[in-house]
Amino acid sequence: MSAEVSRTRRVGRPPRLTLDAIVDAAERLLAAEGVDKMSMRRLATELSSTPMALYHHVRDKDALLVRVLESQARAMPRPELPDEPRERLVAASVLLYELLAERPWIVEVLTGDDLIGPSALWIVEVMVGAAADCGLDEEEAFFAYRTIWFYIVGDLIIRVTGARRRARTETVHQDEVVAGLTVETHPRLASLADRWSELNGRDTHRQALEAIIHGLLLPRS
């Protein structure tokens, strides 16, 4: 940043803050830098403002994150889903995975399990409803949704953190460990060692979700 631009930002009336501007700036920061680096102070700097000015619009960081989640949820598509309940559950689950995969910072926010944008609950309603229409009772249908949700979040968190680690270093510790295994101690893993990285990198979320849902819907003995 040039000294001239810096001086320009410090003089005159500061730009008028609006809640929409704060939410938009927070979305940009979250997408670029992730949740851990997004603070009210960092956001204030981005907006050429002060943290105190932000607190006139939002109570705290959590309240801001809820606003951002709600903004994202409202912008996400709501496609037509299949009528058949099993197919509908699979389609909704795949849709949820893929929407979050496009916005990995949202997954980081949601791992706290207590922040959510109300407008996102439509897909939860669809998933629980589809599970119930498959013959599960109310509690079983909710359990099915939660099991699918845990898979989605776990898979995406592993992919996001793994990608960041690989961006920092060319060495993948897990690959090195597996490559050093012997057939005497780990025959199955050693046989897969030369394909370990490729197998780990495969995008199998649809296949995995279909398998999970198939198991969840099996008749209980």
Automatic annotation (TrEMBL):
It holds the Pfam family TetR_C_1. Residues 39-58 bind DNA. It comes from the Bacteria. Residues 16-76 form the HTH tetR-type domain. The keyword Transcription applies. Keywords: DNA-binding, Transcription, Transcription regulation. The keyword Cytoplasm does not apply. SUPFAM superfamilies: Homeodomain-like (SSF46689), Tetracyclin repressor-like, C-terminal domain (SSF48498). PANTHER family: HTH-TYPE TRANSCRIPTIONAL REGULATOR RUTR, TRANSCRIPTIONAL REGULATORY PROTEIN. This is TetR/AcrR family transcriptional regulator.
